[in-house]
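> call design_seq(struct)
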């Protein structure tokens, strides 16, 4: 039965835009209202971004602080090509993802010459260069600190206007499905098991004649391409690119999502990304109504992260195992009375 749960959840996500169900406290309007659909679309995008990052962090054991650079490449690349140069959207997305994958290959080939904390610092340095570049607005391309609003003139009519928010939701759901299919296909392939081996003991992989450097570079490029695709979808959902997507804080948020959900697990990063994005968006809207530090989303999310690390080390994916003794204790009296 467990293997059908993801399919059931996907079906729920597919039919959700036709639901008029109202959930006060969780959403400001019915499930099929534009505001709720946009919030859900953002959550789906972050679920995919967190899973793409977990390919590096949870599977290959690469703690990269520069993943936001790939996301920003996708977001700003599509925005610049559509808004400044009038490219068709899908052509801009294809060229941008290809360019971001090439950039990831170049940066990864340098960063992966190092390992451990040195690798993290090199990726952080690359990310900081990207962040500074975006803020300086070279040639008026990025909009500087104000960001770059996406011009709707170059977009397909089905993605423009509040009435078409549902199509953005479909787009976000499609991105999440593509990311899940790619990452899980890698998990099932020999490459997935090899990445796990790299994470646990890199020397064993080298002993059997495989190149740890090339395998990690392949994971780095795939994760970069998925991040750029997610950035392209994100810029469509929120209507423009901002420097925040290029910041190291954005990558730190992805780390929190992966750990919160359960790094290296099948569905943990997806659950962590969706939960984190939902809480971040809702707490930002309710901030003025909550007392003291609870009005600050980062305070609440940071506290939640600390509690998860201490009490649920395996993240959301480990909850089932944590409650197994309780389930057994509840089941035992029923079995005794039945006998």
């Amino acid at each position: 039965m467990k293997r059908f749960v993801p399919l059931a959840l996907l079906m729920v996500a597919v039919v959700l835009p036709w639901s008029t169900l109202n959930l006060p406290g969780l959403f400001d309007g019915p499930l099929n209202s534009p505001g709720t659909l946009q919030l859900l679309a953002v959550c789906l995008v972050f679920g995919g971004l967190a899973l793409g990052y977990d390919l590096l962090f949870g599977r290959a054991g690469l703690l990269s602080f520069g993943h936001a650079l790939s996301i920003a490449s996708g977001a700003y690349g599509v925005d610049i090509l559509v808004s400044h140069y009038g490219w068709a959207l899908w052509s801009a997305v294809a060229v941008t993802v290809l360019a971001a994958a090439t950039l990831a290959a170049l940066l990864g080939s340098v960063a992966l010459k190092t390992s451990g904390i040195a690798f993290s610092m090199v990726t952080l340095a690359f990310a900081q260069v990207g962040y500074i570049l975006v803020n300086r607005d070279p040639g008026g391309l990025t909009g500087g600190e104000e960001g770059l609003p996406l011009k709707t003139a170059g977009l397909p009519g089905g993605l423009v206007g509040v009435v078409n928010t549902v199509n953005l939701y479909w787009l976000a759901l499609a991105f999440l499905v593509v990311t899940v299919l790619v990452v899980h296909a890698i998990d099932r392939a020999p490459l997935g098991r090899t990445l796990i081996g790299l994470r646990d003991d890199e020397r064993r992989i080298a002993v059997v004649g495989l190149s740890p450097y090339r395998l990690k570079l392949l994971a780095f490029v795939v994760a970069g391409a998925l991040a750029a695709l997610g950035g392209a979808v994100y810029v469509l959902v929120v209507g423009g690119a901002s420097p925040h997507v290029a910041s190291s804080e954005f990558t730190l948020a992805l780390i929190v999502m992966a750990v919160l959900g359960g790094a290296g697990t099948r569905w943990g990063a997806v659950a962590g990304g969706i939960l984190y994005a939902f809480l971040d968006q809702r707490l930002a809207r309710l901030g003025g109504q909550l007392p003291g530090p609870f009005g600050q989303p980062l305070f609440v999310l940071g506290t939640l992260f600390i509690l998860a690390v201490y009490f649920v080390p395996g993240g959301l994916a480990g909850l089932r195992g944590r409650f197994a003794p309780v389930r057994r204790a509840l089941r035992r009296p029923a079995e005794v009375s039945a006998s």
